[in-house]
Amino acid sequence: MYVTISDFINEWKREAVLTQKVLDELTDDSLKQQVYPEGRTLGRIAWHLTASIPDYLAHFGLKIEKAVNEENVPASAKEIADTFKKLSEEAALAIEQQWTDDSLSQTQNAFGREETNAQILMGLIKHIVHHRGQLTILIRQAGLKPFGVYGPPKEDWVNLGVTNPPL
């Protein structure tokens, strides 16, 4: 758990870089990929992951500008990736400027349960990671090679000298 704002910011920035690499590989065409006909598209999930950052933080008292036109999924993968970069940087700045290390131990109602602000920030990261995982599956289904977030995708094992990658 986070003891200092700096602890959170360091992890947030690491996770944002990984998410940015996933988003940067999207194509406009890939945004239409769905798991099933009624399911969310890759674009909808990527935009939700992006646009929800300021909404999540504002829900817990931080002042941060919302995503422009947050109701509508952009048709441009670049716009989603650029917006994520902007909002993730603004989120870090808002937290650094508006909360202190002592703020992390304060509790709030978080979706029906009492949580510390440190737990709330961990929830934000888990939300990003959850949806990033969904994106990875849809990216592969769209015919693109996914970025190896915490390890290499199957295509990169050969570059590591592994001819029979683990299942």
From TrEMBL:
Positions of a divalent metal cation binding: 48, 127, 131
Single Gene Ontology MF annotation: metal ion binding
Record keywords: Metal-binding
Alphabetical list of InterPro entries matching this protein: DinB, DinB/YfiT-like
SUPFAM superfamilies noted in UniProt: DinB/YfiT-like putative metalloenzymes
Entry similarity comment: Belongs to the DinB family.
Protein name: Putative damage-inducible protein DinB
Species assigned in the record: Cytobacillus firmus
Record lineage: Bacteria, Bacillati, Bacillota, Bacilli, Bacillales
